[in-house]
């Protein structure tokens, strides 16, 4: 099939019934881009001989060099199936874990997905991730089992062994889907039970069934007889569905194609005598139909062409299949060329995959109600609670209409940068006959003039110089303009409803836009600019995305993927566009990767700082996952998902966006500070007496009395720290306690709920009336119930109602408790107790309440060990006295009124305002209380998945051990010599890990690193030997490597803090040994 013209594609775009929006998802190196090449070649865009070698959709240079896809790119393909013509908007996505955010942006725009699985490696970690992403976005997947040739040539399996292996792979994939389905059903069941309990009155009978039996899940699973599985080898250009062989053999065997389709995969065999298909192949030791009719033929073809190179047998096969081969293919020295020539005619992979896509994947018209409601539910609000006008838009979604009156709704999933030369308006268009004749005539005239001038030797030097001089000045101004506008941003988007036209004006809805509030303001006569999170823009240009190229369009109907130019000033990364202000912003894209790797960036020449700032702003817009921060120190920090992602971002900054030489710091590794319960054994596992604990407390006392903190600090043996402000008017006593690990994890995962809770409490304190959605109330009540269930025991009695604040930044994993008996502060959970949410007269806040909270926030944001945030620490305020608070207020008022500083100003003036002193005192009290407990450092940890062969297993373990890694488990993939190792590795030790492991294993092992959790480093960073056994074991200096101290000192050195270390270790006099012979 030749390449479809732009006019043809525009026609196909008008029929949403025959449009398929799909993306290719898989683990890294499972053959996504090779398969995409085969599909692109079927449209004549590239040569079929180059499919798999060209990697057409990998348009970046670094993608070609590394051999991995780094960004998702789209292409529109035309395919005829069953007398109908289809338009396929195909998006190729990366498989590397660092770029999983690109997968999220692609999945949001699609209705279906091609999930690829390597026939040898089977289901890998990233395969599970992409299946979960497809499930969360409610898109339907179909399966391609790729690299089947590896079973024949690498593993050298027989056809029967290969059949068993393929069955296991299908079971693995279906197990992942089944797990996702089960969790969904159980959640729905739990909600239903809860509703029934609320409604039930009197005696109730409990139903013990989980609800799994009643739900039909047969359509979810991958099964060859359903036609949603393709077996393929994209690199050799072949692929098939069982349906193709069923149609082929039904004529030969005289069996109905439908019967053969159902029995070709499964435990069926052919009884040659009875000429019937019977069940029980395994029990009777017979060859299954799939092996006999399908795999045996493929195995014999590979045997003839690649293994034995039997020319006679090859000619026999070619003639029996009725294929025509070119003589150069038959003579070629590489048997793979001949093999792909035979297979691409006999079983073309593009036909199998594209026919499956057209038959099994849904069109934009088939979008489900559940998916629409999920997309339109803003934040914590239910779909039912949205305004009526907003709910009416649901019908526009479901109809996917391109009528003139249909509301235009577009979702932009990412912005990507394109060189201005690649835009269609700047491309050289082909010349017509008249233009060619005119240019020919001009060239002839110039040549004649030059010849005449040469003959007469009258070439005027002025005339030669004047024109180029003006041309030079023109040229010198042009590059500057080009430099400014070298990169243009195009929005990667999909039209969900209506017809988009060039130059059309639309609203850009920010993620916090509330349609109810927006509609109310607009109905009251407010302009667009006065509505928060709403702006208006025009769609300057519309593009058809064709891989490396763009084609300009005048209009795009609903259901299509497109590129939109001119949105760079209105959209940062993703946005919802609509002509109706009633449209809610879509739910944010679910990003799998957490940006964790930070580096500080500065230009080599300080004068180029503005260029770098502009370049970083462009990079932030072009990359869905990268984050740009400016720290308090003024450093520009780039946060990325991993090492490969970091390298790509830095290359983009240097070569595309900033175009300046940059200096990059060593990666800034995040740590957390925490406290733990006092250990029961010392460093040599001897049981501790009370002596060491007293020694630790005395040590803290000694440190605090050495002048760093004034003598107003008191630390009792129980760890209670009491501090008095410099003006002696306020005293605070604070105790630090470690939070249980489960509570810390809960607080960390519930940061959004805590943030919402804080905003509600702030509004109630300000006297505002709030209408909180039921889902938000449920989430807050759920958090409170979980905290109450986890904080059990005498120590934590009634502690949940005593919570004063969370920190740092008011939503972190640390708690401030109000243990004051004389201060009944309003509960943070007050929004749950009030049905109307109206401010009522409750216990008032004490003066300077905010100062205590601010001091706690500052202390938890930068701990005492190395100024890193705290985690899992509970600070209990057990005493807070402010003497004569009323005169203080009067004095403060008097001093502000008095001119030139009156003599009657308060005693507090020389120390500053009381609130400031109280903040400083509270911060210091928290830090001292933290140091009075056994302190530990927490390191960020990666989960590391490594696939390797048995030969290099020892080397993998060696590299992991050297880098403080810990193996959790390893398993061997059945039928292969491949091991799957799962380990945890500190982020601090991960830089250069992938490269080292590849070098040590000669490229046979490749790790996938994903941020997992925070883990306490067991060693005390400030440990010194105290008991006799420790002195004997570690020596007086105890100078063996302390990993925690090493990390603490590295962070302190980077931040410019004091580091206690000896510069000269052994100060012996140097002497030349040669002189003392």
TrEMBL record:
Pfam families: EFG_C, EFG_III, EFL1, GTP_EFTU. It comes from the Eukaryota. Keywords: GTP-binding, Hydrolase, Nucleotide-binding, Ribosome biogenesis. One of its GO terms (cellular component) is ribonucleoprotein complex. CDD domains: aeEF2_snRNP_like_IV (cd01681), eEF2_snRNP_like_C (cd04096), EF2 (cd01885), EF2_II (cd16268), EF2_snRNP_III (cd16261). The keyword Nucleotide-binding applies. SMART domains: EFG_C. GO terms for molecular function: GTP binding; GTPase activity; ribosome binding. Residues 424-485, 888-907 are annotated as: Disordered. Residues 435-452, 462-478 have a biased composition (Basic and acidic residues). GO terms for biological process: cytosolic ribosome assembly. Residues 17-365 form the Tr-type G domain. Residues 895-906 have a biased composition (Low complexity). This is Elongation factor-like 1. It comes from Oryzias melastigma (Marine medaka).
